[in-house]
Amino acid sequence: xxxxxxxxxxxxxxxxxxxxxxxxxxxxxxxxxxxxxxxxxxxxxxxxxxxxxxxxxxxxxxxxxxxxxxxxxxxxxxxxxxxxxxxxxxxxxxxxxxxxxxxxxxxxxxxxxxxxxxxxxxxxxxxxxxxxxxxxxxxxxxxxxxxxxxxxxxxxxxxxxxxxxxxxxxx
Length: 171
Known about the structure:
Layout: E1 3-14, E2 17-26, E3 31-39, H1 44-72, H2 86-97, H3 103-107, H4 110-119, H5 124-131, H6 135-150, H7 152-160
Antiparallel strand pairs: 1-2, 2-3
Helix pairs in contact: 1-2, 5-6
C-alpha cells in the first residue's frame, strides 16, 4: 500500500521559520502526521514529497510490528498485508517465528502457516522461490513448524495441566 496523498497545514511562525504539519494518507485511508520547522516560503509540497519514503517505511514497520506483537500475545498473525507485499509479510513473519522459543506461541500460528503454504506455491521449491529464500532455509522453517503443529494436541493437553499456583502439598 502506498502513500496516496499529503496535505500541508501551516502553523505558527517565528521569525523566518514556520511550523508545518504534513498529513500523509495511505491508499487504505490510514493517516500519519509529521510536524517540521522550516524556512518561511519554502516549497512545502517538495518537503512533503521528501518524506514519502520514510512515512512508507513507518507504515511497513508498524504493520510487521503488529504481526510480531500478535505472535508474542499468542495470537495468529495472519492477515492480508496492506503496506508491504504479502510475500514480504509472509517471509518476515516466518523469519520472526523461527526466533520464538515458546512452542505454545508458535502453535497458535498454524492458520498463518497454512495460509503461507496456500498462497506461495504448490511445493516447497515453489514456496522458497516465491518467498525469495534458499530452499534449505525454507526446509528448516517447514521442518520446525510442521513438528510443532504435529504435536499440537500434546501441547494443548500440556496447557490444561498447568497449575495456576502450587497445590498445598507442593508448597
